[in-house]
Design a protein that fits this description.
115 residues; alpha+beta; YefM-like fold; 3-stranded mixed beta sheet; 5 helices; 60% helix; elongated
């Protein structure tokens, strides 16, 4: 078990070590040098004021479709996590004995939807 934790941590370190962090300004200045960074399996984390705002991944002609499909799965996974988080939050609120409930018709009227 301990070995698995160390192995996982090492894999995360190796993954992160291949990432390059560039600010928007550096990205603009790098120009064609970005291709060199992305060649192979390169990754760039784009930052603004030191905070991550984007991620790029190197692809080539043969890997493009596969990487694109992977990103679609990542977006789906992120969406599922968001939904799960909102459901957990709703369940917590609903379980509160002091929760205030509104009438169903009022709810639909507030959303602007018609049923």
């Amino acid at each position: 078990m301990q070995y698995d934790i160390i192995k996982k941590t090492w894999n995360e370190v190796r993954f992160m070590s291949r990432m390059r962090f560039l600010s928007i300004r550096e990205l603009q200045q790098q120009g064609s040098g970005i291709k060199d960074i992305l060649d192979g399996d390169g990754r760039i984390v784009i930052t603004s004021n030191g905070k991550p705002i984007g991620l790029t991944v190197g692809v080539n002609e043969s890997s493009f479709e596969e990487v694109l499909e992977d990103w679609k799965r990542v977006r789906l996974l992120r969406h599922r996590r968001f939904i799960d988080k909102k459901l957990d939050e709703s369940e917590r609120i609903a379980a509160d004995i002091n929760a205030e409930w509104i009438d169903e018709d009022d709810f639909w009227a507030e959303t602007g939807a018609s049923i």
